[in-house]
Design goal:
Shape: elongated
Strand order of the largest sheet: 1-2
Mean pLDDT: 84
Number of strands: 2
Low-confidence stretches: none
Helix content: 25-40%
Order of helices and strands: EHE
Radius of gyration: 13 Å
Number of helices: 1
Number of domains: 1
Largest sheet: 2 strands, parallel
Structural class: alpha+beta
Distance between the termini: 34 Å
Length: about 60
Amino acid sequence: MRLAAYQFAVCGELNHNLEIVKKTVIQAAENRVDLIVFPECALTGYPPHDIAGSDSTNVLC
C-alpha cells in the first residue's frame, strides 16, 4: 500500500481548496498512491473564522 500526506495552507475559499485537492489526487493517482491524508478541514477551512461575513477579521486566501 502506498501512502501520501499532503500539507497545504487551508483557507476559507472552498473552490481554491478543492482545486488543490483535485490536483493532488490526480498526481497521487499517477504515482499509484492508495491513500492520501489531507489536513483537517482541507476543503471547508476552519469555520466560522474563515467564512466571509463572519465576525472574524481573518483574511481568506
